[in-house]
Amino acid sequence: ELLQTSWKSSRDALTAPSKLNAKLATLMGIVASADAAPTQQAREVFAHLSEQVDTQLNHLTDLLKEDVPGINKLVREADLPALIVKKS
Predict the structure, then answer these.
(1) Burial class, 30, CB count within 10 angstroms (exposed 0-12 / middle 13-18 / buried 19+)
(2) 73: helix, strand or coil
(3) How far apart are the first and last CA of the chain?
(4) Angle ∠(39,17,26) on CA atoms, nearest 5
(5) pTM for this one?
(6) How large is the average pLDDT for residues 10-31?
(7) What secondary structure letter does DSSP report for 17?
């Protein structure tokens, strides 16, 4: 939800949905281009997007605290390498 990883070119924005970082960047461009203070609508959009970003960051924090240690334990117990790098 935070980043759109499937875009390979700017044309992909027409077919794949924008994620939160792109929406915030667009909003920042609109607000920065004005010679006046941000409108109430811009403030409301920012508040809404900020809530969504906070939700995603909370999910990430939960994963890092709750799930990653368990996965790391399973990897160690199985004596698996944490990363597999293939030499070319």
Answers:
(1) middle
(2) helix
(3) 33
(4) 30
(5) 0.73
(6) 86
(7) -
